[in-house]
Amino acid sequence: MLSQRWVNAFLDPVRERRAHYEAQPGLIEEILASGIRRMRRESDETMRLVREAMGMPGHSLRPAPGDSVLPPGLIYC
Questions:
Q1: Which among 4, 30, 28, 6 has a CA at the least distance from the CA of 17?
Q2: Mean pLDDT, range 41-50, rounded to an integer
Q3: Domain range annotation of the chain
Q4: What would you report as the CA-atom Rg of the chain, rounded to the nearest whole angstrom?
Q5: Which end of the chain, N or C, is less surrounded by CB atoms within 10 Å?
Q6: Residue 77, pLDDT above cutoff 90
Q7: Nearest by Cα to 60 from 73, 72, 43
Q8: What's the pTM value of the predicted model, to 2 decimals?
Q9: Which CB contacts under 8 angstroms, 24+ apart, belong to 44-47?
Q10: Using CA atoms, how far apart are residues 10 and 25, in angstroms rounded to an integer?
Q11: pLDDT confidence of 22, banded at 50, 70, 90?
């Protein structure tokens, strides 16, 4: 059976990381926003290459800024 001391020793680093992030409001949101910006840059470049390979340069499924009407059945990232 696991001793309480061993379990606490195992969980202490997890608790410390949690306290670190908990003490910095907004940090998690900024990390996520940064990851989303990176993902969009990379996916935009990948899709540009795909469209170029397919002979469809200039086409985009991502709605233009301000567009709120999306065709049904398509998923936008």
A1: 28
A2: 92
A3: 25-54
A4: 22
A5: N
A6: no
A7: 43
A8: 0.53
A9: none
A10: 26
A11: very high
Structure tokens that stand for 28 in this block: 């998690």
Of 2, 20, 22, the C-alpha closest to 10 is 2
Contact between residue 27 and residue 21 where contact means Cβ atoms under 8 Å apart: yes
- In the structure encoding, which two tokens stand for residue 52, read together? 């170029």
- The first and second tokens of residue 61, run together, are 């499924």
Tokens linked to 73: 């059945």
